[in-house]
Amino acid sequence: MTDIFATDLPARAQSHHPQQLSQLLRNLSLNAGSKITLRELAVAMEDRSFGAFLVVFALPNLIPLPPGATFILGLPLIFVAWQMFASRRSRIWLPTHMGDYAFDNATFFVFVNRISPWLQRAETLVRPRGWFLGSRLAERLIGLLALVLAVVIFLPIPFGNWLPAFALAVIGFAHMERDGLGLVAGALIGIISLAVAASVILAAGAVLAFMI
Question: Nearest Cα to 56, choosing from 80, 20, 84?
Answer without folding.
Answer: 80
